[in-house]
C-alpha cells in the first residue's frame, strides 16, 4: 500500500526529520506534539534573560560537504553560525593539578607529555589514534554514507583495537597517578563509555566536524520546525496523542486526548518505544522478545539532573566544560559524589546578557528517588533548592564570589524531563546495535505502517535520531514503489 498521508507522534528530532523528508517526498504529514515547542529533548529554556541549554554537547555534521552536514542542510538547520570551543574539557583537583584537553592535537600532545613524560609511549599511541579518527566520522557513516563506511573499514583495525576499551580501562594504563584519575573523566565524565566515542568526538572537534550551534539546542530545533512549516507541513502543539488507531493489522491514524481522531495511511512515532507499545497501543502488540526487553526498567538516569545558574560573571575565558574533583565526597541528591561535571557557556554570548554567563552542573541520578520525593511537593521543591545551594557552595572555591553572583537558578530533574517530553526511565534490554549503526527505525509485530524513531528506539544522538526519521520516510516510499 502506498502511503500518501502520515501522522507523526512528537516533534522531537526524529519526528521533525520525518516531517521534512515526508514533505520533500510529496507526502501529507502532520505532527502532533504534547509540548508547546518543537525539539523534544533537543531543547532549552529561558529564565530572566539567561538560556539554559538542555541538550547539545557536541553537534556532529558541522563541516560543510560531509554527509551529516548535507542532512542538516535538507532539514534547514545548516548553514548557521557554529561555535568551536578551544577545549573539550578541563579536569581540576583540589591540590591544583589541571589537565586541559584542547581540540588542537599538537597542543594536547605537548600538554600530556609535559604532565607525564613517563607515559610517552601511551600518549603518542593515543594521539596517533586521534589523528586517524580525523579521517572519518562514525556519525557520517550512520547517516547512510557508504563512502564513509568504506573509509571507516579502511581504519577498522584501529577502531576495533580502541573499541575494546572504556574510558576507565584506558585511563588505568597510565603510570602517572593524576592522568590515571583524570583521563577516565574527559568525555562527559562517562567513565564506562567506549573510548571509540571519545576518539570520534575529540578528533571531529579537531577538524571542526563537531561544534555547538550558536543560540543552542532549541534554536537549532526551531530552525528544522520552520523548514518543515515552510514546506507546507502541519504541527499541532499541546496535542497529546492518546492512542494509535489500528484496523486489520495496520496503523490508520491517531486519537488525541480530547477524543479527536486523525486518519492517515501510516504513523511514525517519535514517542519512546515503551510509551508507544504500552500507552498508545495498549500493550496489545507484544511478542515475548518485546515483553522481555521491557521487563526491567532502569532506575539510573545519566545526566538526569541539570543544575543551572545565570551568573553576573563573565565566563568567556573559562573552558567549555570541566570536571571538578572535590576535597571529599559530598551528599548530593541520592548519593555521595567526589566530583562535579560542569558545562560553561561563556563561549556563546547569545545565551546570557552582556558580560554575564551560564554555568550548568550535570548529575547522574536515580529515577525512583525523585518519584518518591514528588509525593510531597514541598519536599520535592525543598530538595531542589537544597541541591542548588549545595552545588553553589562547592563551586565557590574554584569560582570565588560566585555565591553572590547568582541572578537566577534552575534545577531540572527526571520528572521535569518527563513532564515536558514524555521521556521517562529507560530499560535494561540490550541496545539495538544494528538499529543504532544503521539508524534503522523500530517496527512493531502485527502492526503494518507503524515505525518508531528516536533516541530510545536506538537513535545515536541528534544526528542518529534525524537519520531515523529520514529512513522511516524512505521505508514508506520504498513500500509504495514495491
From TrEMBL:
Residues 13-476 form the Amine oxidase domain. It comes from the Bacteria. It holds the Pfam family Amino_oxidase. One of its GO terms (molecular function) is oxidoreductase activity. This is Amine oxidase domain-containing protein. The lineage of its organism: Bacteria, Candidatus Bipolaricaulota, Candidatus Bipolaricaulia, Candidatus Bipolaricaulales, Candidatus Bipolaricaulaceae.
Amino acid at each position: 500500500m502506498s502511503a500518501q498521508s502520515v501522522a507523526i507522534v512528537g516533534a522531537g528530532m526524529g519526528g521533525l526529520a520525518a516531517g521534512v523528508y515526508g514533505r520533500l517526498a510529496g507526502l501529507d504529514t502532520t505532527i502532533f506534539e504534547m509540548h508547546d515547542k518543537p525539539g523534544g529533548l533537543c531543547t532549552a529554556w529561558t529564565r530572566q534573560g539567561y538560556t539554559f541549554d538542555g541538550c547539545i554537547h557536541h553537534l556532529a555534521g558541522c563541516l560543510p560537504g560531509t554527509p551529516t552536514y548535507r542532512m542538516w542542510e535538507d532539514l534547514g538547520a545548516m548553514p548557521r553560525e557554529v561555535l568551536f570551543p578551544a577545549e573539550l574539557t578541563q579536569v581540576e583537583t583540589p591540590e591544583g593539578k589541571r589537565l586541559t584537553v584542547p581540540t588542537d592535537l599538537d597542543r594536547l600532545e605537548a600538554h600530556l607529555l609535559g604532565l607525564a613524560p613517563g607515559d610517552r609511549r601511551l600518549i603518542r599511541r593515543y594521539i596517533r589514534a586521534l589523528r586517524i579518527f580525523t579521517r572519518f566520522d562514525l556519525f557520517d557513516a550512520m547517516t547512510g554514507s557508504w563512502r564513509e563506511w568504506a573509509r571507516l573499514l579502511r581504519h577498522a583495525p584501529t577502531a576495533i583495537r580502541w573499541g575494546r576499551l572504556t574510558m576507565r580501562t584506558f585511563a588505568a594504563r597510565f603510570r602517572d597517578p593524576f592522568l590515571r584519575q583524570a583521563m577516565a573523566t574527559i568525555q562527559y565524565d562517562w567513565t564506562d563509555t567506549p573510548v571509540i566515542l571519545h576518539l570520534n568526538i575529540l578528533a571531529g572537534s579537531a577538524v571542526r566536524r563537531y561544534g555547538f550551534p550558536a543560540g543552542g539546542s532549541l534554536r537549532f530545533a526551531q530552525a528544522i520546525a520552520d523548514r518543515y512549516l515552510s514546506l507546507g507541513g502541519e504541527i499541532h502543539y499541546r496535542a497529546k496523542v492518546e492512542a494509535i488507531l489500528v484496523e486489520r493489522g495496520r496503523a490508520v491514524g491517531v486519537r488525541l486526548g480530547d477524543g479527536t481522531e486523525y486518519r492517515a495511511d501510516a504513523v511514525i512515532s517519535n514517542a519512546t518505544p515503551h510509551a508507544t507499545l504500552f500507552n498508545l497501543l495498549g500493550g496489545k502488540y507484544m511478542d515475548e522478545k518485546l515483553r522481555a526487553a521491557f521487563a526491567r526498567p532502569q532506575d539510573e538516569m545519566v545526566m538526569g539532573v541539570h543544575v543551572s545558574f545565570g551568573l553576573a560573571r563573565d565566563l568567556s575565558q573559562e573552558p567549555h566544560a570541566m570536571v571538578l574533583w572535590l576535597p571529599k565526597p559530598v551528599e548530593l541528591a541520592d548519593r555521595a559524589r567526589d566530583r562535579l561535571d560542569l558545562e560553561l557557556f561563556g563561549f556563546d554570548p547569545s545565551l546570557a546578557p552582556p558580560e554575564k554567563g551560564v554555568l550548568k552542573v550535570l548529575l547522574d541520578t536515580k529515577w525512583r528517588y525523585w518519584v518518591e520525593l514528588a509525593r510531597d511537593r514541598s519536599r520535592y521543591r525543598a530538595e531542589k533548592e537544597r541541591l542548588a545551594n549545595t552545588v553553589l557552595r562547592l563551586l565557590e572555591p574554584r569560582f570565588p564570589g560566585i555565591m553572590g553572583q547568582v541572578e537566577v537558578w534552575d534545577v531540572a530533574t527526571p520528572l521535569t524531563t518527563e513532564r515536558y517530553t514524555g521521556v521517562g526511565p529507560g530499560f535494561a534490554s540490550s541496545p539495538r546495535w544494528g538499529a543504532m549503526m544503521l539508524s534503522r527505525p523500530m517496527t512493531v509485530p502485527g502492526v503494518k505502517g507503524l515505525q518508531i524513531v528516536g533516541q530510545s528506539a536506538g537513535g545515536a544522538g541528534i544526528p542518529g535520531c534525524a537519520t531515523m526519521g529520514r529512513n522511516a520516510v524512505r521505508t514508506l516510499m520504498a513500500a509504495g514503489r514495491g
